[in-house]
Amino acid sequence: MKRLTTLLLLMLCLVATMAQAQDKVTLSGYIRDRASGEGLIGASVSVQELPGVGVATNAYGFYSLTLPKGTYTLLYSYVGFVASGKTLPLGSSQKLDVELQENSTALQEVEITTHKEDNNVRSMEMSTLKMQVAELKSMPALLGEVDIVKAVQMMPGVQTAGEGTSGFYVRGGGADQNLILLDEAPVYNASHLMGFFSVFNADAIKDVQLYKGGIPAQHGGRLSSLLDIRMKEGNSKKLGVSGGIGTVSSRLTVEAPLIKDKSSFILSGRRTYADVFFGLSSDENIKGNQLYFYDLNSKLNYTLNDKNRLFVSGYFGRDVAATDDFMMNWGNATATVRWNHLFSDRLFSNTTFLFSDFDYALGSKEAESEFTWKSHIKDYGLKNDYTYFLNPKNQLRFGLHLTYHNFMPAEVKPGPASYVNELKLNSTSALEAAVYLSNEHQLTDRLTVDYGLRLSRFTNMGPGKVYLYDESFKTPTDTVEYGRFEKIKSYGGLEPRLSAKYELNEVSSVKASYNRTLQYLHLVSNSTSALPFDVWVPSSTYIKPQLADQVAAGYFRNFNDNMFEASLEVYHKWMDNQIDYKDYAEILLNDRLETELLRGTGKAYGAEFYVRKQKGLLTGSLSYTLSKTERTVPGINQGKAFAPRYDRRHSGNLALSYLFSPSITFGANWTYATGGAVTMPVGRFEYNGKTYPVYSERNGYRLPDYHRLDLSATYEKPRNEFRKYSGSWTLSIYNAYARKNAFTIFFRESEDDHTKTEAVKSYLFGLVPSLTYNFNF
């Protein structure tokens, strides 16, 4: 902690030293949506008289621009909104809040300059995907539910975990190597209904950003990606009610001002109702069954004064599956309290207190086998982040993050007449701390760099116990007990980050990035599906933190007056301390899990192509990824490199939206990927009258190729100033040509020849239609 504190003090001294500005004034304020009062993230402020000089708003819609005294024409713009220009004499520092008007459908054919249509060329960001929920809602969806995670799976460099699932893999990393944040709180399991839906209700979400590389120094703790999701703040202008009624679930969102233009709230809920239909069934075997999920998003914000604003937000969601003799439920709960404070018109701070809890429970209700099995991971965190707008060419970010983790892998309690034994696996806790400093520095009109450093520290603490082993690392010889908060093992390291952008001309640029990331938490799972039985474990005496170094480079180009944007990125990632399991490993309820784990190295590399059409009646995107991922783990596959299950050589996605009329929109998605890697039996042998399979090398075979077409049609009567209510009908067809994509492969003795084994493919979905009615007033 002393090193962390010292580095933070050095950061503050650096900022104080650099804060000298002579004969300059600062213009600052917030950019908001005129209709709702929501802050606009990443809105642009540019100065017409000073080409190349400008700034983007932060995650709360705040901007600050320091300029020499004079008169300037300022352009405020944001994607999907009408730009606003203002001419201002700046003789002294001043505050200017701006509200932008959203583009209406009726203005589709009018040429309007919106948020930097060439933003992909001019921004520092690469290996980054930014999505607005309005775009997502035009995409076809499984059972009518718009799903943020499934939209992410359509992007280059992102692989799906399988048919219907909401797990994803980024640039050769595992599912546990993605940091998912909801209003800055981590979400450890983002799946509903075993992965068929994600936990993110699109009605409550404002902004989604995925970082596949070039991860800002502010964020750490995962190797592969950051999925940063921000909830809406609530309409501070007027009451708004929206929702939808679908074939599987219904949604309702209410938002309104508490004090107009000063305080507002939003409440958004969603629930499925398959269990309602079970009760109507004549089949007594399913009549009393339960199968549903629900989630609730809530947020309150309050403007205390010009310099202070408070946000309180929470998410609560749970899945329930139960029969007469078995039950299972799991869910997430997150809460954040955030305080925005302006120390000056150039120094912005955000202090966040957060809580996150993922837990699951399952059990049997039968008297002889009655038991309850529970597990959880809980986080309590503090983040203190600062942004200092030093001048138009330098934007500093620095801060301190602290997180206390509490792990309870499993606790089994039997019923009074049960033969099941009571069991509690070794619980533990950990403290994760980090300080960081970064600077986005415009060196010339064409060259901009963003350099930063993150110093992280992880301490595994008691209460807990550590086994000591013999030379075989199988049999424990002794046990060391640790008291509450007593240090068990510490790790730490520096994580440098560097990005650079060079503008070749007005329509093209090249970018490059390097980042090192450390990951101290690990997911113990032997399944690609989003089962809730996966257990998070910390780095400890025998489990070292994972480490990755990634380099990436890209060429970005716009065509036809920014109608088309295109990019080509290549990347290479090296990974150390990658965890895998021994053959025939025993994972379930194992208190000495470290004896079943092996460590090795990994590497991933590939190329990502992306083309997007963003103007006209027909819009959409095309992406293609060529990639390879492999691991080398001593003790597995005879020490030879092998492909993880999620390695896919080729993948591509096509998403189209066509505005047939002001009221009718058609959508289509087509996705393709080569089959995932699997281990298959290649023979068998008999021993003592029993037959045993002989398996191929680790993941030596491939599942069949995956491809699917989804279609949608939406009818919506546009709202205008005389019509305050709007409604829409959306018909979606998932898997329109009924492709039987493999969900699992299992093997059985051939019915025709008992000396042979045959593979049987199971699949989840044929053609699945759905109808949803959405309303808004």
UniProtKB/TrEMBL annotation:
UniProt-listed SUPFAM superfamilies: Carboxypeptidase regulatory domain-like, Porins
Compartmental location: Cell outer membrane
One Gene Ontology molecular-function label: siderophore uptake transmembrane transporter activity
One cellular component (GO) term of this entry: cell outer membrane
Gene3D superfamilies reported for this sequence: Carboxypeptidase-like, regulatory domain (2.60.40.1120), TonB-dependent receptor, beta-barrel domain (2.40.170.20), TonB-dependent receptor, plug domain (2.170.130.10)
A Pfam family reported for this protein in Swiss-Prot or TrEMBL: Plug
Keywords: Cell outer membrane, Membrane, Receptor, Signal, TonB box, Transmembrane, Transmembrane beta strand, Transport
GO BP: siderophore transmembrane transport
Domain TonB-dependent receptor-like beta-barrel: 288-735
TonB-dependent receptor plug domain span: 144-221
Source organism superkingdom: Bacteria
Annotated signal sequence range: 1-21
Topology with respect to the bilayer: Multi-pass membrane protein
Chaperone in keyword set: no
Protein family membership: Belongs to the TonB-dependent receptor family.
Protein name in the entry: TonB-dependent receptor
Organism: Pontibacter mangrovi
High-level lineage: Bacteria, Pseudomonadati, Bacteroidota, Cytophagia, Cytophagales
